[in-house]
Amino acid sequence: MAKQPGKVESAEATKYAALSRDIEECRQEPGSTLDMLHAVQRHFGYLEPQAVGMVAEALGLTKAQLYGVATFYTMFFFEPKPPVIARVCVNLSCHLRGAQDILHTLEEAAKEQHDAFEVEEVMCLGLCEQAPALLVNEEAVGQVSAEEALAKVQACVTTISG
Amino acid sequence: MEQICLRRIHNDNSQDIESYIAHDGYTALRKALTEMTPEAVHEEVRASNMGGRGGAGFPTAMKWNFLVGARGQPKYVLCNFDESEPGTFSNRIIGEEDPHLLVEGCLLAAYATGCSIIFIYIRGEYFLAYERVKHAIEQAYARGFIGKNILGTDFSVEMHLRRGAGAYICGEETAIMNSLEGKRGYPRARPPFPANEGLFGKPTLINNVETLSNLPDIVLKGGEWWSNLGVNEGAGLNIYCLSGHVERPGAYELPMGTTARELIYEHGGGIWQGRELKAWKPGGASSAILPADMIDLVLDFKPVQAAGTILGTAGVVVMDDHTCVVDAAIRDATFFEEESCGFCFPCRDGTRVLRMLLERVRHGVAAPDTMDLIEHASTDMMGASFCGLGQFAPWPVVSTVRNFRKEYEAHILERVCPAGVCPMDGAEPDEHVDRRTLQEMLVAQKGGVLA
């Protein structure tokens, strides 16, 4: 589906405007650096450089300083990502109940589907009583077989790509 | 059975303020603000004998003492909601199902210690809990439980919610302050302690979600009542998080001092699939992996410490007799390697060395003295790491060497994995092994994996 260049530009402009509002709201509040970075990622799907620049300016930091902070944290992305991300916990409680099966199944499927979604191997998600567990974007999914986990991810891909 | 933190979680709309108020919510706040002095609230917490539920078990009332005596304004309450210890999920359940309990607990702590600004720092992966706590704070503001002149008294407080972004180290009490200040989440040197020079350089009380969530009942029913809920000399109730190979994994709020046997067999329904218990952990990744014959251990801070490990967050993980302890240990080792912040070298290098040594054991290519190397690296890390992460990271590994020696001997000397789990394929893992790192870490060793 080809997009009109003008529309893309205005969609981008909307994102920057929305981010500006979020930054304004956050900067009144102490200790909201990470919240501002979360806002960038919410609007752009990753830490888009120009948007990071806006946050840096609001905080009185250089971009290098802000990237120094951002790169410490595993939830921030520095390049565009597929719209669906499956974070699979591989720590002990989930491992004991089949996390590796889920991981392999999802990784294979992602490869076959040319990265329609991304699979991340992550540390404990605090869903241990529901092991094996994963996050499909923001939704917690637990006590599932590898097939059920894949179905959940597929459903999310379908919903988002419309 | 008596329940405190988990009492309301099955109510309809338990996360909503109406439901909370209908079940005695905010009555403790009213009682404290209108009938009790801050000192009287503090006194009840002292009488409760509560040890902090974040993992260290430090006496809560004593921590509060430090705040009361500290100079500087404003004073902060920082609620540590960065729950990331593998096997632990009690804070998440409170945040998702009873966020107002946490809000009320925070307010009581602020009142008792003279703090005027409250921060709740929640881990980034807790999306639902974040939304629920955020909504709860908004509701509490709207109803006048947070803000200026709360309930018509001269007690005023503000409350803010902040999100982390994926870093286990930020649960460490000094790293969490750096993170909240918009820095990399490195730990700070102590002293100065947070109570004197904490968040933004001001006196700061850092308490865990579960610690704070117990405060409303302590205020309503008294510290002594709370204290007496424990068994085997334990104080109060404690949420044990049970996971792994049990029939009924879940969060169990039980008397502090419950034994592992009661937890696993009576409450958790025993080992799944009719199997036998082989190994278990009392308190998250940072605790030792213990053998089945230690199942009668009393799960309280002191008894577990006397047994050589820690209760920590009381995240109990159970392993059945089909489990390989090397395969289990390497999961925890991988976790710590991944989560080491890299600030100090004993942790940064040590977590990597332990994982690499275990990798060799799994593939059947470990040197004969591997167990000695693990002991050696572990001792170095425990003594020389800057913060608790590196000091406790070796425990899941070195404890398996000590408690399951025969199993390691089978892997290392006979090249066999008795449980049939490890690949044992003779493949040399870690082509990128940094030999120099190993050499420096294990300088006192001759030969070993380098031979």
Radius of gyration of chain B: 23 Å
Outline of chain A, from the CA principal axes? globular
The succession of helices and strands of chain A, N to C, reads HHHHEHHEEEH
Major β-sheet profile of chain B: 5 strands, mixed
Instruction: Assign a percent range to the helix content of chain A.
Output: 40-55%
Q: Quote the beta fraction of chain A.
A: 5-15%
Order of helices and strands of chain B: HHHHEHHEHEHEHHHEEHEEHEHHHHHHH
Report, as a whole number of angstroms, the end-to-end distance of chain A: 13 Å
Low-confidence stretches of chain B: 444-451
Tell me, what's the shape of chain B?
globular
- The count of strands of chain A amounts to 4
Q: Indicate the CATH topology of the largest domain in chain B.
A: Rossmann fold
**Estimated radius of gyration of chain A:** 18 Å
Biggest interface and residues each: A-B, 39 and 55 residues
Strand order within the widest beta sheet of chain A:
2-1-3-4
Mean pLDDT value of chain A: 93
Parts with pLDDT < 50 across at least 5 consecutive residues of chain A: none
**Strand line-up in the sheet with most strands of chain B:** 6-5-9-7-8
What number of domains of chain B? 3
Give an account of the 3D structure:
The complex is a heterodimer of chains A (162) and B (451). The model of chain A has no long low-confidence stretch (mean pLDDT 93). Chain A starts with a helix and ends with a helix. Chain A has 162 residues and is of the alpha+beta class. In chain A, 54% of the residues lie in helices and 11% in strands. Chain A folds into two domains: 5-70; 85-161, Glutaredoxin. In chain A, a hairpin with a 2-residue loop joins β3 (133-136) and β4. In chain A, α3 (49-59) packs across α4. Chain A is globular. With 451 residues, chain B is an alpha/beta fold. Chain B has three domains: 17-227, NADH-ubiquinone oxidoreductase 51kDa subunit (Rossmann fold, 3-Layer(aba) Sandwich); 237-320, Ubiquitin-like (UB roll), CATH 3.10.20.600; 325-450, NADH-ubiquinone oxidoreductase 51kDa subunit, iron-sulphur binding domain (de novo design (two linked rop proteins), Up-down Bundle). Chain B is built from 20 helices and nine strands. In chain B, β7 (277-281) and β8 form a beta hairpin. At the A-B interface, α2 and α5 of A face β3, β5, β9 and α14 of B.
